[in-house]
Amino acid sequence: MVPAYNEEATIRRVVKNIWDVMGCPVVVVDDGSTDRTAEEAFEGGAIVVSHGKRLGAWTAIQTGLLFARYHKIAPVVTLDGDGQHEINDISLLYDAYRKTGADVVIGSCPERVSKLRRIAWSFLRTLTGLSVKDLTSGFRLYGPQAINILTSKDALLLDYQDVGVLLMLAHRGLSIVEVPVRMYERPKQAGHSRVFYSWGAVIRYMMHSSVYGVSKRCFKANSKKEVVS
Q1: 62 touches 31 (CB < 8 A)
Q2: How many other C-beta atoms are found inside a 10 Å radius of the C-beta of residue 110?
Q3: CA–CA separation, 78 vs 64, rounded Å?
Q4: 107, HSE (Cβ side, Cα atoms, 13 Å)
Q5: Cα 67–Cα 72–Cα 75 angle in degrees, nearest 5
Q6: Which of 14, 95, 160, 224 has the fewest CB atoms in 10 Å of its CB?
Q7: What is the Cα–Cα distance from 103 to 152, expressed in whole angstroms?
Q8: What is the four-CA torsion angle of 48, 49, 50, 56, rounded to 10 degrees?
Protein backbone atom coordinates (compact mmCIF):
# COMPACT_ATOMS: atom_id res chain seq x y z
CA MET A 1 0.00 0.00 0.00
CA VAL A 2 1.44 3.30 -1.10
CA PRO A 3 0.23 6.65 0.27
CA ALA A 4 1.10 9.31 -2.27
CA TYR A 5 0.92 13.06 -2.68
CA ASN A 6 2.18 14.66 -5.89
CA GLU A 7 4.39 11.69 -6.84
CA GLU A 8 3.62 11.67 -10.58
CA ALA A 9 7.32 11.43 -11.46
CA THR A 10 7.88 8.14 -9.63
CA ILE A 11 4.61 6.42 -8.70
CA ARG A 12 4.13 4.43 -11.93
CA ARG A 13 7.64 2.95 -11.69
CA VAL A 14 7.11 2.09 -8.00
CA VAL A 15 3.82 0.30 -8.77
CA LYS A 16 5.25 -1.61 -11.72
CA ASN A 17 8.30 -2.67 -9.68
CA ILE A 18 6.07 -4.05 -6.93
CA TRP A 19 4.05 -5.96 -9.51
CA ASP A 20 7.17 -7.34 -11.17
CA VAL A 21 8.94 -8.34 -7.94
CA MET A 22 6.08 -9.36 -5.62
CA GLY A 23 3.19 -10.11 -7.97
CA CYS A 24 0.69 -8.85 -5.42
CA PRO A 25 -2.09 -6.22 -5.55
CA VAL A 26 -0.90 -2.65 -5.08
CA VAL A 27 -3.19 -0.03 -3.53
CA VAL A 28 -2.21 3.61 -3.99
CA VAL A 29 -3.99 6.13 -1.78
CA ASP A 30 -3.83 9.45 -3.59
CA ASP A 31 -3.96 12.12 -0.90
CA GLY A 32 -5.55 14.88 -2.95
CA SER A 33 -2.66 15.31 -5.37
CA THR A 34 -2.73 18.27 -7.73
CA ASP A 35 -0.71 16.49 -10.40
CA ARG A 36 -1.18 13.19 -12.32
CA THR A 37 -0.34 10.89 -9.41
CA ALA A 38 -3.68 9.04 -9.52
CA GLU A 39 -3.59 8.57 -13.30
CA GLU A 40 0.03 7.40 -13.29
CA ALA A 41 -0.65 4.91 -10.50
CA PHE A 42 -3.72 3.51 -12.27
CA GLU A 43 -1.86 3.19 -15.58
CA GLY A 44 0.91 1.38 -13.71
CA GLY A 45 -1.58 -1.25 -12.55
CA ALA A 46 -2.56 -0.06 -9.07
CA ILE A 47 -5.95 0.04 -7.39
CA VAL A 48 -6.32 3.77 -6.71
CA VAL A 49 -8.27 5.25 -3.82
CA SER A 50 -8.40 9.05 -3.91
CA HIS A 51 -9.08 11.67 -1.26
CA GLY A 52 -11.03 14.64 -2.58
CA LYS A 53 -8.55 16.93 -0.83
CA ARG A 54 -5.29 16.55 1.03
CA LEU A 55 -5.84 15.02 4.49
CA GLY A 56 -2.26 14.17 5.48
CA ALA A 57 0.01 11.15 5.29
CA TRP A 58 -1.39 9.39 8.33
CA THR A 59 -4.99 9.67 7.11
CA ALA A 60 -3.89 8.33 3.73
CA ILE A 61 -2.37 5.29 5.44
CA GLN A 62 -5.52 4.78 7.50
CA THR A 63 -7.59 4.86 4.32
CA GLY A 64 -5.39 2.13 2.87
CA LEU A 65 -5.62 0.06 6.05
CA LEU A 66 -9.42 0.46 6.08
CA PHE A 67 -9.46 -0.77 2.49
CA ALA A 68 -7.40 -3.79 3.54
CA ARG A 69 -9.59 -4.50 6.56
CA TYR A 70 -12.77 -4.30 4.51
CA HIS A 71 -11.36 -6.72 1.94
CA LYS A 72 -9.80 -8.96 4.65
CA ILE A 73 -6.26 -8.42 3.40
CA ALA A 74 -3.41 -8.96 5.88
CA PRO A 75 -0.57 -8.39 6.38
CA VAL A 76 -0.13 -5.04 4.64
CA VAL A 77 3.19 -3.47 3.70
CA THR A 78 3.35 0.32 3.44
CA LEU A 79 6.05 2.13 1.50
CA ASP A 80 6.62 5.58 0.05
CA GLY A 81 5.77 6.53 -3.52
CA ASP A 82 8.99 8.41 -4.24
CA GLY A 83 11.10 5.35 -5.00
CA GLN A 84 13.44 5.54 -2.01
CA HIS A 85 12.59 2.04 -0.82
CA GLU A 86 14.10 -1.11 -2.35
CA ILE A 87 11.17 -3.24 -3.53
CA ASN A 88 13.11 -6.49 -3.17
CA ASP A 89 13.35 -5.82 0.57
CA ILE A 90 9.58 -6.32 1.00
CA SER A 91 10.40 -10.02 1.25
CA LEU A 92 12.71 -9.30 4.21
CA LEU A 93 9.81 -7.76 6.12
CA TYR A 94 7.53 -10.67 5.28
CA ASP A 95 10.15 -13.26 6.27
CA ALA A 96 10.63 -11.54 9.65
CA TYR A 97 6.85 -11.42 10.14
CA ARG A 98 6.52 -15.12 9.37
CA LYS A 99 9.49 -16.25 11.48
CA THR A 100 9.00 -14.05 14.57
CA GLY A 101 5.22 -13.77 14.65
CA ALA A 102 5.60 -10.04 15.32
CA ASP A 103 2.61 -7.77 14.79
CA VAL A 104 4.66 -5.04 13.14
CA VAL A 105 7.91 -5.22 11.17
CA ILE A 106 9.81 -2.02 10.42
CA GLY A 107 12.21 -1.72 7.51
CA SER A 108 14.97 0.07 9.35
CA CYS A 109 17.72 2.27 7.92
CA PRO A 110 18.69 4.81 10.62
CA GLU A 111 22.02 5.61 9.00
CA ARG A 112 20.23 7.46 6.19
CA VAL A 113 19.32 10.43 8.35
CA SER A 114 21.34 13.40 9.56
CA LYS A 115 23.11 13.59 12.91
CA LEU A 116 20.58 16.20 14.05
CA ARG A 117 17.66 13.88 13.35
CA ARG A 118 19.40 11.02 15.17
CA ILE A 119 19.72 13.30 18.21
CA ALA A 120 15.99 14.05 17.98
CA TRP A 121 15.25 10.32 17.79
CA SER A 122 17.43 9.64 20.84
CA PHE A 123 15.44 12.26 22.78
CA LEU A 124 12.13 10.68 21.71
CA ARG A 125 13.31 7.16 22.58
CA THR A 126 14.24 8.34 26.08
CA LEU A 127 10.95 10.16 26.49
CA THR A 128 8.68 7.40 25.20
CA GLY A 129 10.52 4.25 26.23
CA LEU A 130 10.42 2.93 22.67
CA SER A 131 13.49 0.94 21.69
CA VAL A 132 12.93 1.25 17.94
CA LYS A 133 16.04 2.40 16.07
CA ASP A 134 14.28 3.90 13.04
CA LEU A 135 11.31 5.91 14.26
CA THR A 136 10.24 7.48 10.99
CA SER A 137 10.55 4.72 8.44
CA GLY A 138 7.43 4.51 6.29
CA PHE A 139 8.50 1.03 5.15
CA ARG A 140 6.46 -1.14 7.52
CA LEU A 141 4.48 -4.36 7.65
CA TYR A 142 1.27 -4.40 9.71
CA GLY A 143 -0.33 -7.69 10.76
CA PRO A 144 -4.10 -8.15 11.32
CA GLN A 145 -4.11 -7.05 14.97
CA ALA A 146 -2.18 -3.90 14.15
CA ILE A 147 -4.56 -3.14 11.27
CA ASN A 148 -7.57 -3.51 13.59
CA ILE A 149 -6.07 -1.09 16.14
CA LEU A 150 -4.93 1.46 13.59
CA THR A 151 -8.36 1.59 11.95
CA SER A 152 -10.12 2.13 15.29
CA LYS A 153 -11.57 5.48 16.40
CA ASP A 154 -8.70 6.00 18.86
CA ALA A 155 -6.20 6.11 16.01
CA LEU A 156 -8.10 8.96 14.34
CA LEU A 157 -6.61 11.35 16.90
CA LEU A 158 -3.06 10.76 15.70
CA ASP A 159 -1.45 13.39 13.48
CA TYR A 160 1.67 11.50 12.41
CA GLN A 161 2.41 7.99 11.22
CA ASP A 162 5.63 7.69 13.21
CA VAL A 163 6.07 7.77 17.00
CA GLY A 164 2.38 8.05 17.87
CA VAL A 165 1.48 4.95 15.90
CA LEU A 166 4.30 2.90 17.45
CA LEU A 167 3.38 4.08 20.95
CA MET A 168 -0.25 3.14 20.46
CA LEU A 169 0.66 -0.34 19.22
CA ALA A 170 3.24 -0.93 21.98
CA HIS A 171 0.77 0.31 24.58
CA ARG A 172 -1.75 -2.29 23.37
CA GLY A 173 0.88 -5.00 23.86
CA LEU A 174 1.73 -5.64 20.21
CA SER A 175 5.22 -6.79 19.32
CA ILE A 176 7.45 -4.71 17.02
CA VAL A 177 10.64 -5.88 15.35
CA GLU A 178 13.03 -4.22 12.91
CA VAL A 179 14.96 -5.58 9.96
CA PRO A 180 17.72 -3.66 8.17
CA VAL A 181 16.80 -2.55 4.65
CA ARG A 182 18.27 -0.40 1.90
CA MET A 183 16.96 3.08 1.28
CA TYR A 184 17.94 5.45 -1.49
CA GLU A 185 18.15 9.21 -1.72
CA ARG A 186 14.78 10.85 -2.25
CA PRO A 187 14.61 11.92 -5.93
CA LYS A 188 14.86 15.69 -6.38
CA GLN A 189 11.60 15.80 -8.35
CA ALA A 190 9.73 13.94 -5.60
CA GLY A 191 7.92 15.67 -2.76
CA HIS A 192 9.71 16.75 0.40
CA SER A 193 9.67 14.93 3.72
CA ARG A 194 6.21 15.15 5.27
CA VAL A 195 7.70 15.78 8.72
CA PHE A 196 11.15 17.35 8.46
CA TYR A 197 10.54 19.86 5.66
CA SER A 198 11.02 22.96 7.84
CA TRP A 199 12.14 23.90 11.34
CA GLY A 200 8.56 24.87 12.20
CA ALA A 201 7.36 21.42 11.17
CA VAL A 202 10.14 19.78 13.18
CA ILE A 203 9.20 21.76 16.29
CA ARG A 204 5.51 20.90 15.92
CA TYR A 205 6.38 17.25 15.38
CA MET A 206 8.67 17.12 18.44
CA MET A 207 6.14 18.88 20.68
CA HIS A 208 3.29 16.65 19.53
CA SER A 209 5.32 13.46 19.91
CA SER A 210 6.71 14.54 23.29
CA VAL A 211 3.30 15.30 24.78
CA TYR A 212 1.87 12.07 23.41
CA GLY A 213 4.84 10.07 24.67
CA VAL A 214 4.68 11.54 28.18
CA SER A 215 0.92 10.97 28.36
CA LYS A 216 1.32 7.32 27.40
CA ARG A 217 4.05 6.75 29.99
CA CYS A 218 2.00 8.45 32.72
CA PHE A 219 -1.08 6.42 31.80
CA LYS A 220 0.96 3.20 31.91
CA ALA A 221 2.46 4.08 35.29
CA ASN A 222 -0.97 4.90 36.76
CA SER A 223 -2.38 1.64 35.43
CA LYS A 224 0.36 -0.31 37.24
CA LYS A 225 -0.40 1.53 40.50
CA GLU A 226 -4.09 0.62 40.21
CA VAL A 227 -3.21 -3.04 39.66
CA VAL A 228 -0.89 -3.06 42.71
CA SER A 229 -3.41 -1.32 44.96
Answers
A1: no
A2: 17
A3: 9
A4: 27
A5: 85
A6: 224
A7: 16
A8: -110
